[in-house]
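Quick one:
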Amino acid sequence: MKSINLQVMKDASEFLEYNHPAIPLYVKTGNLSSFPHMKALCHWHDDVEFLLPINGHITYHINDKDYYIEEHNAIFVNAKQIHYGYSADGSDCDYICITFKPSLICSNEALANKYILPITEHHSLSELLLLADNPKHQGIISFLEQVHQLYQESKGCYELSSISILCSLWIRLYKILNVQSSSADYSSSTDIFIQKQMVSFIYDNYTDKLTLNEISHAGGISRTKCCQIFKKYLNRTPIDFLNSYRLEISMNYLRVTDLPITEIAYNCGFNSLSYYSETFKKYKGCTPNEYREK
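Output:
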């Protein structure tokens, strides 16, 4: 089974390479060490996501919360939520990621309105931590393991069998959440939308000389509010996030190209080689040259 290759689009949404392009279901294994600094990029998608550590542990940041997920526990991430996984202590983690469009398990409009949308469109429901020692959660975790096993073996009608299991999983999830109507937290929902707008702006314009004014303008808010939202949802300042993203892009250049480091620095939005080297050393603990040599 292929390991995860996270591709973030310019609107900060993730491009998911489904196992079969015509079937919106993503069942793959991954590990934190495949990401620079053991930290995935901030992203979101319209699909719902389940992540299950199978060796080690992972911290998942969802909107403004961090969740420590131990081996064989799992987490459900609702659609359209800003999230990323990372290692808080430098240790690696192997995990199963299962992501799918809810329409895969229910295309009937009446049933979707009754059982799907109350969850996916619920403004205050962003995630659910699933614990292996909780009898109500055990069934969902078992279903995740079964789908993973089916895709590993890829025998017979494994796609249909997987969809059938996901339907059963959703029934369990619906009963656990017991959602009847959305008690929307519109303030929080608005802030999340603004955060997506500003992150998208950075992903789209990181090669330019961006200022705090421009980033806050992309969200239609003040500089102070901009800093507050970045602190709340990403636990860093806007400029800190911008530089971190630039460095992630530059690290890819260092790994897969022979471009001069000065050219890489300018390609990634740094206005001088000295500032790039200084920032690289601060964030990564080594110089760009040392990183390339490694």
